[in-house]
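Structure tokens please, single chain.
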Amino acid sequence: MWIYVIKNFSDRYYVGCLLRGQITNDNFSNNKLFLFTNSSLIHTINRRILSNKCSLMGDKILFKKMFGLTILLVLVGIVIGNFIENQYENKSTEPNIYNVTGDPNAQGGAIASPESVGIEPGEVAPDFELETLDGSLIRLSDLQGKKVILNFWYTWCPPCREEMPEMQKFYDEYGDDVEIVAVNLTEMEKSEQDIHDFIDEFSFTYTVPLDRDSNVSDQYKIYAAPTSYFIGTDGIVQQPRWIGPMEYEFMEEMVNGLN
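Here you go.
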């Protein structure tokens, strides 16, 4: 805080306070000031009073700045609070979902929309040819004469991982009459090596074709995993599509309903 005194040409003296580059002047009469001999520098008679006056002026300016900063922080806080609240509301809003299986207990990686009704019972299962995990080729139409469980899955899908040991148990028991074709949704995988590692880890022995370009999953309108179709010996889909993990008893029930 600096105090300065200026004498003008009309012998009137101006006392001011210099606050961080800002100058504010107060007009004082001659009886409160005096001049040094032959000098325009003026010294106040009551320096303490003048210093207090400048300090008060500085405090007022500082208070105004602090008040403005406080208001700004409050406004920023309100904006941030509203943004967080909107984000939370958007996340907590449940999307419209549809269970197309007819079973209220169906579970899966997702529930398909009504547009993806898939292949209906009574329709011919679309034929396809895919390379399997061991490098051989499989064509669905070559399996006519056997009942087929056609399953779609990927390695990091929790319900898929849940059902696959049940599928292996079922395959061990009924593999002579029922073929399990577990089509991997390869575009969902980080790498094909992950598929090899997963199958090897759990020693699954049923057929695992790789749907690398998603052509087969598109044919069967796969929008959720796991999804399973039940195909009779004549190549016709004979049971409703199932979305969600399968248990051993459920597979028995579905297969027993196939011709």
